[in-house]
Specification:
Elements lengths: L2 H8 L1 H7 L5 H11 L7 E5 L5 H8 L3 E5 L3 H10 L4 E3 L13 E7 L7 H11 E14 L4 H13 L12 H8 L6 E12 H9 L2 H4 L3 H18 L4 E14 L4
Parallel strand pairs: 1-2, 1-4, 2-3, 4-5
Antiparallel strand pairs: 5-7, 6-7
Length: 252
């Protein structure tokens, strides 16, 4: 696991407090693509982190097992959701029995796996016609202020990390496994948060999470000044895009 992959675990408390959740329309879309509801389904949520998506699927009536490799993240999940079963592990070697799950889900986590290992593992633990669902939540680049912020972050942090797997996931899966037919949907939603909450969210991103305070502080200070000019009332209107990929395990 790289330093960037470990960064979320080291910032687990901040992650739990600052990361956005997921709107109901995401889980509605997964149910439509899977042609079954979460209620009563057995879900393996891989890279569950602090349990943001895990708890929402549980609230829809799913029986969820959280799989998380990081002790910091796992501790936050246990605190937030003491009733959800949790095991240590990762998607490349799932510590669960074959054929036990209706869904295997990855909420902003599949990019940390090796697809040649994580896809066969997901297929192994899924029941026939079970569904692997992968999704990523990101600020919508169609919003001019968000696109300009990304440009500034790249300029200030030359090795600024961005997830490249989100729109490529269907192609990656199809290339590796001709027998699978991934479906892709792009969903939009929005929320309003304070500038401080938005900046706290930024600090949970991998490249800022691994930066020392002296390096991150001027970047965040510049962003605060820019955001105050754009949003003088101190409330940021965040627009999000969710890139969702779902693929069904064959019946045989």
């Amino acid at each position: 696991m790289t330093e960037l992959a470990r960064s979320s675990d080291s910032a687990a408390a901040q992650y739990a407090a600052a990361r956005p959740g997921y709107p109901p329309l995401l889980f509605d879309a997964v149910e439509v693509m899977a042609d079954r509801a979460f209620e009563g389904a057995h879900v393996i949520d891989v890279g569950a982190g602090t349990g943001i998506a895990t708890g929402l699927m549980r609230d829809r009536g799913a029986h969820v097992l959280a799989v998380e490799p990081g002790p910091g993240m796992a501790a936050q999940l246990r605190t937030a959701h003491p009733d959800i079963r949790l095991v240590q592990g990762d998607g490349d070697a799932l510590p669960v029995a074959s054929g036990c799950a209706d869904f295997v889900t990855y909420a902003q986590a599949w990019h940390w796996t090796e697809p040649t290992r994580s896809i066969p593992e997901a297929l192994r633990v899924l029941k026939p016609r079970g569904v692997l669902a992968l999704w990523w939540n990101a600020l919508d680049p169609a919003a001019a202020w968000a696109a300009e912020q990304e440009t500034r972050l790249r300029e200030r942090l030359p090795d600024y990390y961005q997830y490249g797997a989100a729109p490529k996931a269907p192609v990656i899966i199809k290339t590796l496994y001709d027998g699978l037919t991934p479906a892709f949907r792009r969903l939009q939603w929005s929320r309003e948060v304070t500038i401080d909450a938005h900046l706290a969210h930024l600090t949970t991103r991998s490249q800022l999470a691994v930066s020392d305070r002296e390096k991150a502080a001027p970047v965040l200070a510049e962003e605060r000044a820019v955001l105050l000019r754009i949003f003088p009332d101190g409330v940021v209107r965040e627009q999000y895009v969710i890139n969702l990929t779902a693929v069904r395990k064959p019946a045989r």
